[in-house]
Design brief:
Blueprint: H1 27-33, H2 39-53, H3 57-65, H4 68-75, H5 81-94, H6 98-107, H7 110-115, H8 123-136, H9 140-148, H10 152-157, H11 164-177, H12 181-189, H13 193-199, H14 205-218, H15 222-230, H16 233-242, H17 250-260, H18 264-272, H19 275-285, H20 289-302, H21 306-314, H22 317-324, H23 330-343, H24 347-364, H25 370-384, H26 388-391, H27 393-402, H28 409-420, H29 423-430, E1 432-433, E2 444-445, H30 458-462, E3 472-474, H31 510-529, H32 551-556, H33 570-583, H34 589-603, H35 619-629, E4 633-635, H36 644-658, E5 663-666, E6 672-678, E7 691-695, E8 704-706, H37 710-717
Parallel strand pairs: 3-4
Antiparallel strand pairs: 1-5, 2-3, 5-6, 6-7, 7-8
Helix pairs in contact: 1-2, 2-5, 4-5, 5-8, 8-11, 11-14, 13-14, 14-17, 16-17, 16-19, 17-20, 20-23, 22-23, 23-25, 24-25, 25-28, 27-28, 34-36
Length: about 725
């Protein structure tokens, strides 16, 4: 064999540049490399910028000043996936800076970021694209762009990503987006509920928390609450509350459930599965102020609906609210007081809450927190509106206001508001009703009561029979068959300073009413005692229809303890009808006042000469009426010879029905009078302030005496 000839090495191509390792010590160099045509250089430059920006806000601002973002923006659509990925990473880390976000909005980067959410993209691209969108979604115009550019669908899809960072960024972005109502409706249509519920089972608390916060926002819409119930979302939420290891999520879970309580359909779902009992059991043992406060706020919102108030009462929510009043947290006390005010719309709840709640609320009037005192005043006002039994809070407040040490502006305000809702007691204690205090059926004048003496209800007064004390003058311009019962569970809570108005109601006979009321009281008292059936026994069914007393009737009589019915006053009904026909057509208030004064005087014995006032015997006739009725309670229409206080009361009763503003003032020695405000005619068309007048109903019926004049003083005192 011949000798092998050694092959010479091939020379390298002349047009190829040997690899050059560049060591860059400044970010400016890396930014310059972003203009390179080589993919490897671009990828390495982006990676270096990512690491630099990760070190802090100063570095982000440095890159912003060097124009890095404009170069990186072009790389978002680069054909090389590694370059694209590294560029997105830089945007994701830099977008936390406020100035960077401003430039990103100017570059209109959202569409490019949304395109990076495609299923075929790398999971790292998903992570940093969603991170950048989450940073930018705090601003409203970006939210609009994400919505308009179709960003919601891929974000919802990525809630099912295998990567926890992608899930976290996506749900955070959605949480920010659904703050806008338009986006809430859109994510509902895109079926966001199932993937959000899936995130509640995540092993990462931050993901669970963000999912709950998102559910809390979107469940403000009724349609979403229905979908939540259909997907067994309520069970998810209750399971979180029952798990002590998830205590850091309890407040947010409760916030979602709080929204669900606002919807009757959803609440019924919770009730059918025993969820409300579970919820209240959890709340009763919780000592976390945030949970207690949110629970009370949820009840307040839910209790605006009458049907929901019924359900909450059946589940004995009052017990929980009363317990909250005893906490040491002022925010909880405020929320509990507000919830009590809302639940007062249910007549049975008002009864339950009044017994224990009124003393506790009165104690809150001594709090150092102004908000607590204000909430307590409102709750006391609603509890005592049209409820004679609850109105005995008044005795406690009067005692406080007589003490110089315990009295404060809130105790005074509470007493005033409570009295405005119990006009019989207000007139008896204070001797004054303003033009805004409208006298309704059930009002009675039992004379002035001294401080410290108990104010008796009409029911209690009716049991006394005939006495030698002055007659109780009673107002009831309502037929007896319409007095008693209204087939409804709820009455709306009264606002402070407002008076009850008559409502149309379906009626039953007095005999039937007594029977129905008796049955109703039995069920109510059983629930109030908290009785429960033993094992194997069937629980008492919830009543589908509960008998309710109108606010006016509650003023007339405490129906919970008796079947006594107030007598109707057909004569007063005729007075009101006649006065309306003859007086209302008059063109000016002055003419109406004068005509009404003459009308009242005519019905009560006519004018009396001042010199012969002592001969005007009105006492005998009233005694005859009492003997006839075998009772001290006298309907005002039966009085044909009335003195000052009879006439003044009748004047106000009719004036209130006709919309004529007037006050009623009690004086000494059987004196009482009405005051009206009238605007004088101005020859030059100037608007003059109203002048106050005392109305003469005795001597010159219809004479209007200017307040402060000798004639007016004589009428009131002599």
């Amino acid at each position: 064999m011949g000798k092998k000839v050694k092959k010479e090495a091939e020379s390298p191509p002349k047009d190829v540049f040997d690899p050059l390792l560049i060591e860059s010590k400044t970010p400016a160099t890396a930014v310059l490399m972003l203009s390179s045509p080589e993919n490897e250089v671009l990828a390495k430059a982006c990676d270096a910028l990512y690491k630099f920006a990760s070190k802090g806000d100063e570095n982000k601002l440095t890159l912003l000043g060097l124009g890095a973002l404009e170069h990186l923006y072009k790389l978002l659509s680069h054909e090389d996936p590694i370059v694209r990925r590294n560029a997105v990473m830089v945007f994701g880390i830099m977008a936390s800076n406020h100035d960077v976000k401003k430039l990103l909005r100017e570059l209109d980067i959202t569409n490019s970021l949304i395109s990076q959410l495609a299923p075929e993209e790398d999971v790292v691209v998903h992570e940093f694209a969603t991170l950048c969108l989450a940073h930018m979604a705090v601003e409203y115009t970006t939210k609009v762009k994400i919505f308009e550019q179709g960003g919601l669908e891929p974000l919802i899809r990525l809630l099912g990503s295998p990567d926890p960072d992608v899930k976290k960024n996506s749900v955070e972005c959605l949480y920010l987006l659904v703050q806008d109502f338009q986006n809430r409706a859109a994510v509902r249509e895109l079926n966001v509920i199932p993937p959000l519920l899936g995130l509640l089972e995540s092993e990462y608390p931050v993901i669970q928390l963000l999912a709950l916060q998102t559910l809390e926002v979107i469940s403000k819409d009724r349609e979403t609450r229905i979908i939540l119930g259909e997907n067994k979302g309520l069970d998810f939420l209750l399971n979180i509350l029952e798990n002590n290891e998830l205590s850091d999520l309890h407040i947010e879970a409760l916030a979602v459930l709080g929204n669900c309580l606002e919807d009757v359909h959803t609440l019924q779902l919770i009730q059918l599965t025993g969820g409300i009992k579970k919820l209240l059991s959890f709340l009763e043992i919780s000592t976390v102020p945030g949970i207690q406060k949110n629970a009370a706020k949820a009840i307040t919102k839910a209790a605006f609906d009458a049907e929901i108030r019924k359900i909450l009462h059946w589940e004995e929510v009052e017990k929980f609210l009363l317990n909250l009043l005893e906490t040491n947290n002022d925010e909880v006390k405020v929320a509990a007081s507000q919830a009590i005010s809302a639940m007062c719309g249910n007549i049975d709840s008002k009864s339950v809450l009044g017994l224990q709640g009124i003393p506790q609320l009165v104690q809150l009037l001594s709090s150092n927190n102004e908000e607590v005192k204000e909430a307590a005043v409102t709750a006391l006002s609603n509890l005592t509106t049209a409820s004679p039994r609850n109105a005995s809070a008044l005795d406690i407040l009067e005692e406080i206001n007589l003490s110089t040490k315990r009295k404060n502006k809130f105790s005074e305000a509470a007493l005033e508001k409570l009295l405005d809702n119990n006009l019989s007691q207000k007139y008896s204690r204070m001797g004054y009703l303003s033009s805004s205090n409208i006298i309704t059926n059930g009002f009675y004048d039992c004379g002035q009561i001294k401080h410290g003496k108990k104010f008796l209800s009409l029911e209690e007064l009716s049991k006394q029979g005939l006495t030698d004390r002055r007659a109780i003058i009673f107002i009831n311009a309502k037929p007896q068959e319409n007095v008693v019962v209204e087939k409804a569970q709820d009455v709306s809570p009264s606002l402070p300073g407002t008076s009850s108005r008559e409502k149309a109601s379906s009626v039953v006979s007095p005999t039937e009413a007594k029977q129905e009321l008796s049955g109703h009281i039995s069920k109510s008292s059983t629930r109030g005692k908290g009785l429960r059936k033993g094992k194997g026994e069937k629980e008492e069914e919830k009543p589908k229809e509960v008998i309710n007393i109108t606010p006016q009737v509650q003023e007339e009589i405490n129906v919970e303890h008796s079947h006594w019915l107030p007598p109707p006053d057909f004569i007063l009904m005729d007075y009101i009808n006649d006065a309306s026909k003859t007086i209302l057509p008059l063109t000016t208030t002055r003419e109406q006042v004068v005509a009404l004064a003459q009308f009242v005087a005519d019905k009560m014995g006519g004018p009396v000469e001042i010199e012969k006032l002592h001969n005007f015997s009105w006492e005998l006739q009233i005694s005859e009426i009492e003997f006839e009725l075998k009772c001290n309670i006298v309907p005002i229409g039966k009085i044909k010879r009335g003195t000052f206080y009879h006439r003044a009361l009748l004047f106000k009763v009719i004036a209130d029905r006709m919309g004529i503003g007037c006050s009623l003032v009690r004086g000494k020695y059987n004196r009482a009078w009405n005051e009206v405000k009238l605007v004088e005619d101005s020859p030059k068309g100037l608007l003059l302030p109203p002048q106050e007048y005392v109305v003469d109903l005795m001597f010159e019926p219809g004479c209007l005496m200017k307040q402060g004049t000798a004639k007016a003083d004589q009428y009131k005192r002599i």
